[in-house]
Input
Amino acid sequence: MKFPAPVRTGGRAFGQAGIRPLKNKRMKTKNNLKSLDQFVDEQYGKRGTKKRDRFETGFEAFKLGFLLQQARIEKGLTQEQLAEKIGTNKGYISKVENNIKDVRISTLQKIVELGLGGHLQLSIKI
Output
């Protein structure tokens, strides 16, 4: 099942069913930025709470694309530059980042290692 990424609209985020809209917050200045983990902790509580578990369940569906996008931006690359590094096109990178296209593990490894200069680690929780 695929869920769209929350869209920031008028101070509220809409996305998965069962997740309440975010509280209206003032824009943060560059010196007052929060990490994604800090933001999620504030909005949905610490890991292990019911509210956080509901959020995590829905969030898993689009987290991979978001993580790739954030890593690409952190490296200062455009989608086109990343695509060129791994031998694909900008449209493919966009679809992966926006969770429109599923990505094979081998392709994910290529994106992370060749394109972003990182190391892919996978884990399975049982």
